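dumping these here so i dont lose them again. two proteins, back to back, each one seq then C-alpha cells. dont judge the mess
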Amino acid sequence: MKGFDSDYKNASFAGEIVQSDLAVQIPVSLQGNKYFATLTGQYSSYTSVKGIAAKSKTPETFEAYKKSNIVRKYYPEGAQHLNSNGGGKI
C-alpha cells in the first residue's frame, strides 16, 4: 500500500489492530474536552468516539477502550495494538 511501511499488515481477527485519530472539537465541550479520539477496529470497522481534554490522554483512552464492555464482549482476544499517524498536526 502506498504510504505505509513495508511491515504493514491487515488485522486477521476482531480487536487485533485498532486505528486511532484525533480531531479538534470547537467549541470545547461542557466536560472540558478539546479533542475527540476515534478508535476503529481494522477488522470489524467498529468505531468508538471519545472526548478527551488533551492529546496526551490518548493512551489512557485506548486503555479504557480495551476494558469497555463492548470490546470485552465482541473482541474475544481483546484489543491488541493501537495504530495512529503519530499526530503533531493538530
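---- next one ----
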Amino acid sequence: MSVFRRWLEGEADYPLLDGWREAPPKTKKPAPKKRDDRKELRGFLRVYAVCAVILCAVLILCLLVGVMRLPAFAAPGNPTDNEVGRRYVSSAEA
C-alpha cells in the first residue's frame, strides 16, 4: 500500500505535509546604518552652486567675446544699412 493511500485512510501522516502550516522562523536583519542625508544634501548643494557659477561665468565670457568682435558703431568702414532699406522699398512698390 502506498504512503498516500495510508494517509488517505488515516493510518499514517503524509510526509510531504509535515510542517506545511508552520511559518518559517523569522530572522532578525541587522538594522540599516543611518545615513546623514543632511550632510549629503549640503555637499550636493555646494557642488551644484560651484558648477552653476562656473557655467554662468563661461556663458558671460562667451557673450562678452562676441560683443567685442562686433564692429564699432558709426565707424567709417562699416557697411550702412541704407542700401538694404532702399532695396526693400523699391521692391515693394513694383
